[in-house]
Amino acid sequence: MHIAFPPLLLGILLLAGCASNLPPSIRIDVGEPLTVDQVQKDPDGTLDKVVRWGGEILSVVNRPNHSDVVVLRRPLFDNGEPKPRGGEARRFVARLPGFVDPAEFKPGQRLTVSGHLDGLLTLRVGEYPYAHPVVRVAEHHRWGEYVEPPEPPWHRDPFYCDPFWPWGYPRPWPHCW
Amino acid sequence: MALRLLFPLLTLLLLSACSTLDGPDPALATQATPKQVLSGHAIPGEGESLVWGGTVLRVTNLRERTLIEILSYPLDRKRKPLLDSPASGSFVLEMEGFIEPAEMRVGLPVTASGQYAGILRYREGDLQGQLPRLQGDDLQVWAMPPPARSARQRPDVRWSIGVGTSGSGVGVSIGL
After folding, report:
1. Is residue A170 part of a domain?
2. pLDDT tens-digit readout, B122-138
3. DSSP per residue over A29-95, as a string?
4. Residue A1: is its pLDDT beyond 50?
5. Most buried residue, A61, A106, B47, B126, by CB count within 10 Å?
6. Topology of B25-144 in CATH?
7. What is the pLDDT of residue B126?
8. Residue of A nearest to B62 (CA)
9. CATH code for the domain of A82
10. Do A57 and A141 contact (CB within 8 A), yes or no?
11. Range of the domain at A94
12. How far, in Å, CA of B93 to CA of B70, rounded?
C-alpha cells in the first residue's frame, strides 16, 4: 500500500510542475480529433463539438461584439504548442469575445485555442470563398517565437566521421565515434 | 597497406566534391525559358508540355483557380530550381482550385509541369505587362532555402588533423 503511492505522488508533482501559466484545456487535449476538412464537410454534425486547435495567425477581423482571428491550422506538440509547419494547413476562425487588438495578435504568431465548434463562416481569400470552421473560444494561449532546437554538432561536422583517421586501421570505413 | 587504402578514399572524396557542381538538366535544355518566350526567341506551341520552376513572387486566388507568379530559374536533374544561376524571366502558373497562399511564401522554390497556354496580359493601375502562362498539372514545392549568409560569417571550412599508427607504420593526415 505504501509502495503504490510514491509513483502516483511523483506523477502528480510532475504534472503540477508542468502547470506553468497555460490554461488547462490548452495544456491537455480535451477535444475531439477533428480536422478542418471534416468540419467543412459536415458543419451540422460537428456543431458544438469541443476541439483544441492551433496554428499561425493570418489576420484579425474585429466585429461589434467579438473578434474573429483567422488561423492557419498546424499540428500541436503534446503541450498544445503549434508546430511551425506541416499538417493540413487549412484555415479556421477563432472567435474571441470582445475586442482583440490586431496589433497584439500579429500575423505569423502562433495561437492555440480550445472551445466549441460553431458552424462555418465564409470569408474571401482573394476571390475564393473559403468556408472557415468557427471555434467559439473558451481558452486560448499565444506562443512566443518558435526556436528550432539546436542541431547537435555531430550532425553537421563532416569530420565527426573522419575518413583519414586512422590510416589502415582494420575497421570498416568510415570510422565514426 | 596505408597507400592502398588512401587512393580509393581520395577518389571517393574527389567524386563527392563533384556532386556539388551539378548543373542544369540537359534534358530540359531544349525547352524555351520564359525570357525567351517573351522576347520572341523561342515560342512554344500552344499546349506544348513544359517543366518550369523558380521562386514564388506572388499568389492570386481566383474563384476556381489560383495564379502563381514565379521568377524562373534553370532546373537541375531533380528538377529543383538552381537559385545560384541567373533568373530566366518570370511566368504565371495557373492551377485549378484553391492553393493556400500562406503556404506559398515569397521566395519559396517550386517546380511546375504543365502546358504552355499563351501570353497573359495584365493591368494593375497604371502598370501593365505580359507574362507567359503555364497551365499547371503538377506543382512540386521545395524546402525554403536558408537565409543568405552574411559575408562576415566565417566560411564553412573545417580543418582536421589525424595521427595514426598501423603495424610498423605511422601516418599523419590533414583533412579540409
Report:
1. no
2. 887 888 889 999 999 99
3. --S----HHHHHH-TTTTTT-EEEEEEEEEEEEE-SSEEEEEEEEE-B-TTSPBPSS-S---EEEEE
4. no
5. A61
6. OB fold (Dihydrolipoamide Acetyltransferase, E2P) (2.40.50)
7. 82
8. A127
9. 2.40.50.140
10. no
11. 30-144
12. 7
Element spanning A118, H or E = strand A110-125
pLDDT band at residue A177, thresholds of 50, 70 and 90? Answer: very low
pLDDT value of residue B25: 84
In 3D, which of B17, B47, B52, B46 has the Cα closest to residue B34? B52
Q: Per the structure, how many domains does chain A have?
A: 1
For chain A, the residues whose C-beta falls within 8 A of a C-beta of chain B are: 56, 58, 72, 89-91, 125-130, 157-159, 162-169, 173
**Cα-flanking dihedrals φ and ψ of residue B6, to 5°?**
-65, -40
What is the CA angle A68-A73-A76, rounded to 5? 120
Among B122, B120, B123, B134, CA closest to B54: B134
C-alpha cell at B132: 507567359
Domain borders along chain B are: 25-144
> What is the interface pTM, i.e. ipTM, of the complex?
0.73
Q: Are B118 and B133 in contact (CB under 8 A)?
A: yes
Contacting residues for B141 by C-beta, under 8 A, at least 6 apart: B103, B104, B108, B109, B110
Residues of chain A contacting B64 with CB distance shorter than 8 Å: 128
Average pLDDT value for residue range B145-174: 64
Give the residue carrying C-alpha cell 557542381.
B21
CA atoms of A107 and A13, how far apart (whole Å): 37
